[in-house]
Specification:
Elements: E1 3-7, E2 14-18, H1 19-76, H2 79-82, H3 87-99, E3 108-115, E4 155-165, H4 169-175, E5 183-193
Organism: Methylobacterium oxalidis
Protein name: Pilus biosynthesis protein TadE
Domain TadE-like: 31-73
Length: 207
């Protein structure tokens, strides 16, 4: 029988233990590691999921801002009016291609309105909170989807909302309070004055 020297009780005293006992002690230590991993793993996995969700949010927010800037420019220079684009045409031809494949168009809601120039409380101020803390957010339940890209020289206010899918437990709990459970609503807006373009077509507006 083989024996291994083992220190007892943290002292300098060395005792000999059978090899089988030493192997059993190592197996017990492996079981302790498994228990430790089982305790720590949910926290680590949860942190990874949260980091992924935040990264997903930043990625889609930036793409939404870029897309509304590109699509608004097409309204401003008269490309939308020249194409005679309807609201659905605007989404499918001008807005959604700029979003990318990871942001499906069926999760997008748009609101395009003309803004009459004027001073407070008229003009663009009609779309701002009374305390000037923020803009008035568009409704995302489909009840507010005006489409009026305007004429040359008119002021236009564009709002776009996107229902971003969420997979983080914390974000899912927050999404339950919205009208799109399982989604976080992202929004972007743009205000501009149309250039004095000449249009060969007529946008099908629902002003």
């Amino acid at each position: 029988m083989r024996f291994f020297p083992v220190a007892l009780g943290g002292s300098r005293e060395i005792c000999a233990l059978p090899a089988a006992f030493a192997r059993a002690a190592l197996r017990c230590r492996g079981g302790a590691s498994a228990v430790e991993f089982a305790l720590v793993a949910p926290l680590v996995i949860g942190a990874i999921v949260e980091f992924l969700q935040v990264g997903f949010y930043v990625y889609q927010s930036s793409h939404l801002a870029q897309a509304i800037a590109k699509a608004s420019r097409q309204i401003q220079v008269g490309s939308v009016a020249s194409a005679g684009a309807s609201a659905s045409d605007f989404k499918s031809q001008f807005l959604c291609p700029a979003l990318g494949a990871l942001m499906p168009c069926d999760r997008v809601t748009t609101s395009i309105q003309t803004v009459a120039p004027g001073i407070y409380p008229n003009g663009f101020y009609a779309y701002v909170q009374p305390d000037f803390s923020d803009i008035i957010r568009m409704k995302t339940d489909g009840s507010q989807t005006p489409y009026c890209p305007g004429q040359p020289g008119t002021y236009v206010y564009v709002q776009v909302a996107y229902a971003m899918p969420v997979f983080s437990p914390i974000w899912l709990a927050a999404a339950l309070r919205t009208n799109r459970p399982g989604a976080r609503m992202l929004d972007a807006s743009a205000v501009f004055r149309n250039e004095p373009y000449t249009s060969s077509g007529q946008a099908r507006a629902t002003c």
